[in-house]
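Orotidine 5'-phosphate decarboxylase, pasting as requested.
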Amino acid sequence: MTDTPKPLEPFGIRLGAAIGEHGPICVGIDPHPSLLEQWELPVSVRGLRRFAETAVDAFGGAVAMVKPQSAFFERFGAAGVEVLEDTLCGLRETGTLSLLDIKRGDIGSTMQAYAEAYLGDDSPLRADAVTVSPYLGFGSLTPALDIAARTGRGVFVLALTSNPEGASVQHATWEGETVAGAVIDAVGEHNALAAAGEFGDVGMVVGATVGKDIAALGLTERLLDSRAPLLAPGFGAQGATIGDIAAGFGAASRLVLPTTSRAVLAAGPDVDSLRDALRRVQDEARELTD
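C-alpha cells follow.
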C-alpha cells in the first residue's frame, strides 16, 4: 500500500481532538502467539495479516489511538514488517492516530535513523507517534524530538513503568533528583513550547499500576504541569481499574490515556464483538474526563 503524506497539525492538538471525539482510550494491536491461537489463526505471516486486518477493521475510526506492538510483527522478519507497514497505512486511511510501540533509544546517527524510519514523512513505517527510551540520557532523544516537532508527530518517553525491574533505575536518585522526576521535568520543558491546548506533543509512559509510586515520589503535580499525555499500560487484563488510575494519578488523571490490549482483543476474531469490547472500556475510561 502507498499513500501521500499530508501536512499534519501538531500531535498534541490532534490527540486532544481524538480524545474529545472517542474518549481517552488507546487500544493495542498485539498479535501474540497465544492470541493468534485463540482466534484460531496460524502462528504465521498469514495469521498475522488476518489478525492485524481484523483489528484495523474493528478499531479504525472508533478509538482515539491504536498502538501496534512492533516486536510481534518483527518476529516474522521482512514479511512481518510488511504487514506492519500495511497496518499503519490502514490506520491512516481511517483517520485513526497510530502509536508504534518500539521503545527505541540510541545515540547520534543511529537515533537519527530510527527517528527518520518511524517519524519521517517519506517513511512507509511512519506512525503518528512512537515510544522511546531515555536511559542513554534524555539528550539522546533529540533527533526523535526534532523530527517529531517538524512533522507534527509525537513521542512517548518511558518515565515510570510498572515492570518490577523498572524501579531500580527510575526511582534511583542523582544529585538529589529521581531519574523519573528528571524525565518528567525534561518532557515538561519541551511541552512548554508546544501549541496551545491541553496536551503537548511529547507524552510519557506511566504504568496504570504505579499510583503509589507517583505519590511516594511526589510526582503528581509535576506530571500535571508537564502537559504530557500519559500513556498508562496495565488497564484491563493486567488488573488496573479506572478507579485505581483516578486515585493513583490524582489531579493528573485527566491527562491519562489508559491502554488496553488483551482485554479487548480477547473478544475477537468477530469484528462486532471487538467493537463491543472496545465500547465497554471506552465507557469506563470516560470517567477520567467527566
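Note for the archive: The chain has a mean pLDDT of 94.
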